[in-house]
Amino acid sequence: MPVAEWERFTKKHSKLAYVCQGVFEETKILKRRPGRPSLKVQVPNEYKSTWKINISIAGLDEEKAKTLKQSEECFVLVSNVPVEEATDKDIVAYYKDQMVVEIDFRYYKEPCLASVIFLKHPHRVRALMMLLNVSLLIRALIQYKLRKGRKEWTGELPKIGYNGAKLQDSPTFAFLQYALEGMYVSVKYFAHGIVTLAVR
């Protein structure tokens, strides 16, 4: 029984980089029979054994430790913020605060996008992914300009949106896309370089 338990423990923690040793300790407890003991018949004593395994760490398995270190993931961020102005921890905090990045990446994971890629060659798939990255960047820039313009606007807010309420403080690109439904832009060029836009 204790050997089987030790094998179960070692199998469960087989990926640990430490070398474990187990010492079995047996404790015998006298098992008494029910009723009063007989004075005429001598019955040999019976004992019940309980086992305990004392596990200790004997050292480090260098091969497993090396494998674990090589399999560790890393978080790579490229930033133009100087080292004097922000630490690595600050850069990661700034990145995690940019929820718009993670929210936009959900479009990559939608079945309606993944199921329509019929490209056979890897370089064409990479080219498509580059176009999608650029489109997400443009989407994020439009949303950034929209929110920046909203903060700088001092006039009366227009009543526009899903329920005809005032423009919210942090409008999204999806909101802009909804607001522009049914509208189109007409661009006219003239010989002297003047461009006119007509929105309907």
Strand and helix layout:
Blueprint: H1 2-12, E1 18-31, E2 46-60, H2 62-71, H3 88-97, H4 99-105, H5 111-114, H6 122-152, H7 173-179, E3 185-189, E4 195-199
Tag the structure with descriptive keywords.
200 residues; elongated; two-stranded antiparallel ribbon; alpha+beta; 3 domains
End-to-end Cα distance: 82 Å
Number of helices: 7
**Got a strand count?**
4
Helix content: 40-55%
Give the SSE string: HEEHHHHHHEE
Q: What is the spatial order of strands in the main beta sheet?
A: 1-2
Shape: elongated
Rounded mean pLDDT is 76
Please state the structural category. alpha+beta
- C-alpha Rg (nearest Å): 35 Å
Q: Which consecutive residue ranges, at least 5 long each, have pLDDT under 50? A: none
Number of domains: 3
Q: Main sheet?
A: 2 strands, antiparallel
Q: Into which percentage range does the β-strand content fall?
A: 15-25%
Describe this structure in words.
The structure is a single chain. It contains seven helices and four strands, in the order H-E-E-H-H-H-H-H-H-E-E. The chain has 200 residues and is an alpha+beta fold. The chain folds into three domains: 2-71, no CATH class; 73-110, no CATH class; 117-199, no CATH class. It has a two-stranded antiparallel sheet. A two-stranded antiparallel sheet has the order 3-4. Strand 3 (185-189) and strand 4 form a beta hairpin.
Summarize the structure.
With 200 residues, the chain is an alpha+beta fold. It contains seven helices and four strands; from the N terminus they run H-E-E-H-H-H-H-H-H-E-E.
